[in-house]
Amino acid sequence: MTKVKRDMTKSVPAYQRIKNAILDNIHSGKWQAGEAISTEMALAEEFEVSRMTVNRALKELSEERVLERRQGSGTFVAQQQFNHTFVEVRNIAQDLKSANRDYQAQVVSKRAITASMLDNEMRRKFDIEEIVVSSNSKSADSNKIESAEPAVLYEVKIIHFADGQPIQFEERWVDATKVPEFIEQDFSVVNTSDYLIAKSPLERGNYTIRALSAPDEIACALQIAPQSPTLVLRRQTYSAGRVLTFVKMWHAGDRYQFSGEL
User: Fold this and answer.
1) Fewer Cβ close by (within 10 Å): the C or N end of the chain?
2) CA 154 to CA 161: how far, in whole Å?
3) Domain 3-77, CATH number (from 1.20.1250.20, 1.10.3860.10, 1.20.120.80, 1.10.10.10)
């Protein structure tokens, strides 16, 4: 680990740094499903921590079903038993097309977000620690320049149309470390959910649906009066034990309903 990286992660607990490093190795393909990872002793030496700290990281990843610990054999990357259909994610484009409605998507904005830009709620949701950005002296008059922060999340905002009428406003945040090419996609053509499922299969998720009054930005996007009633679906989905994406989907209350079979 370089000195710069040590400075940027100094505030992150040691066990969490070990977890993040293991997950990075899995997501990058360095450690494949079924393969053994480094031993506790090797990890302790690499991160200059006690084996107890390493044990905590491995224990938590095992509980999250990312790793599998085998008595007398070592620790292995778990064979994920889920597939793309284990978590059913509704796709508004498919729903509208199957109902013979004309579907279009308009990208309002997309951007990369660094750790220092996050509020506490989003930082907790994605388990992101605030990065302390180091500064270097620029001149004798004490002017400073700050090193650039890496992106930790991507944010996109998209309006979905049915027969030319806005029916859903999507606000989505995605773990940039897991799907680094997400922000480069044309989401007027590519569906966000389809892309994420193809790149990082989902293992579980949860959602809530609430009735809320539309803030000005949402009202403008949905072409309704401010404070009009909306149905808001908030959903987060997980891959390899961590939140992959969190999304808010706003629907005009008089144009949309949720239904299903029991």
Assistant:
1) C
2) 23
3) 1.10.10.10
| CB-based burial label for 192 (10 Å; 0-12, 13-18, 19+) | buried
Q: Rounded to 10 degrees, what is the CA torsion of 36, 40, 44, 47?
A: 30
Q: What tokens were used for 207?
A: 């959602």
Topology of the domain comprising 92-252: Chorismate lyase (3.40.1410)
Q: 219 phi and psi, to 5 degrees?
A: -60, -40
Q: What is the pLDDT of residues 54-92, one digit of tens each?
A: 999 999 888 877 888 988 889 998 875 443 334 456 678
CB 54 within 8 A of CB 40: yes
Residues 246, 25, 247: CA angle, nearest 5 degrees: 5
Residue ranges of the chain assigned to CATH 1.10.10.10? 3-77
Q: How many residues belong to the chain?
A: 262
Quick: pLDDT tens for 18-62. Answer: 988 998 888 777 888 889 999 999 999 999 999 999 999 999 888
